[in-house]
UniProtKB/TrEMBL annotation:
<dbReference type="GO" id="GO:0005524">
    <property type="term" value="F:ATP binding"/>
</dbReference>
<dbReference type="GO" id="GO:0016887">
    <property type="term" value="F:ATP hydrolysis activity"/>
</dbReference>
<keyword id="KW-0547">Nucleotide-binding</keyword>
<dbReference type="Pfam" id="PF00005">
    <property type="entry name" value="ABC_tran"/>
</dbReference>
<keyword id="KW-0067">ATP-binding</keyword>
<keyword id="KW-0813">Transport</keyword>
<dbReference type="InterPro" id="IPR027417">
    <property type="entry name" value="P-loop_NTPase"/>
</dbReference>
<dbReference type="InterPro" id="IPR050153">
    <property type="entry name" value="Metal_Ion_Import_ABC"/>
</dbReference>
<dbReference type="InterPro" id="IPR003593">
    <property type="entry name" value="AAA+_ATPase"/>
</dbReference>
<protein>
    <submittedName>
        <fullName>Iron complex transport system ATP-binding protein</fullName>
    </submittedName>
</protein>
<feature type="domain" description="ABC transporter">
    <location>
        <begin position="4"/>
        <end position="230"/>
    </location>
</feature>
<dbReference type="InterPro" id="IPR003439">
    <property type="entry name" value="ABC_transporter-like_ATP-bd"/>
</dbReference>
Length: 249
């Protein structure tokens, strides 16, 4: 099974160090990990560092994969390319780094990604004509279609309505289990993190504040210290954790 371990990982833009010595326990496939932290905490930077797009000290150790490209990434910004249809853009994402000749398996993966995210009805539309939320789902499909062992998604629900936020996070949770993928998803909604993630990594000011089971990590103390918000976590009658926010400090 795939696993990811960060050992004293740093990252810098020019001379400015943005991540300071991040070390995590080994994160294994089959689970969803929420990457949490306030604006500018370093979440996107950590994703870029894991992908090898930024340099820095320490080690990003990935084990248990034989895939040519084990990690797929959905960036925060969704690019627009008006000359491609949705189907073509997802196929293009699939073909990156592969043979140029499209195989039946590639087309099957495109259909599967579009089906998973309920995007088949948009398949022939120009990607530049889509709404912001539709574009965000297509971007998720472009990452999913690569059938990675590790999937990194940077705020994939920020443009989605509530129904689609829950839909996407439910799909991710199921796929993590079915495909034994390790899915790391940057989120600002701590309620979603509590409901849909197994583990949480919390960054603040480029440093690791906490890493562990989400319910143990997302506490009233964390809300106060990291988010400057007074609140509490309750459990509803069905056992689902609920975030109750009282006031910003
Ligand atoms: N390309 C860049 N060049 C220089 N500094 C950058 C660059 N990208 C990000 N930074 C800085 O690195 C720090 C961390 O930014 P990052 O985008 O990783 O935060 P984040 O946790 O993803 O934030 P948000 O929740 O607002 O998306 C910030 O201080 C930011 O200004």
């Amino acid at each position: 099974m795939v696993s990811l371990t960060l050992e004293q990982v740093t990252a810098h833009y020019g001379k400015r160090e943005v991540l300071s010595s991040i070390t995590t326990p080994t994160l294994s496939g089959g689970q969803v990990v929420a990457l949490l932290g306030p604006n500018a905490a370093g979440k996107s930077t950590l994703f870029r560092r894991i992908l090898g797009l930024l340099s820095g000290a320490g080690h990003v150790r990935i084990a248990g994969t034989h895939a040519e490209r084990p990690v797929a990434y959905m960036p925060q910004e969704t690019r627009i390319d008006a000359v491609l249809s949705v189907y073509e853009s997802v196929l293009l994402a699939r073909m990156q780094g592969r043979r140029l000749k499209v195989q039946p398996e590639d087309l099957a993966q495109v259909d599967a990604a579009l089906d998973e995210l309920n995007l088949q009805h948009l398949a022939q539309r120009d990607i530049g004509d889509l709404s912001g939320g539709q574009r965000q789902l297509v971007s998720a499909a472009q990452a999913l279609v690569q059938a990675p062992d590790i999937l990194l998604l940077d705020e994939p629900t920020s443009a989605l309505d509530l129904h689609r936020q829950i839909g996407l996070l439910s799909v991710l949770r199921r796929l993590a289990e079915q495909r034994q993928m390790l899915i790391i998803v940057a989120l600002h909604d701590l309620g979603h993190a509590l409901r849909f993630s197994d583990q949480a990594i919390v960054l603040a000011g480029g440093a690791l504040k906490a890493c562990g089971p989400t319910r143990a990590v997302v506490t009233a103390e964390l809300l106060r210290e990291v988010y400057q918000v007074e609140g509490r976590i309750e459990t509803c009658s069905r056992g689902t954790p609920l975030l109750v926010v009282e006031t910003a400090l």
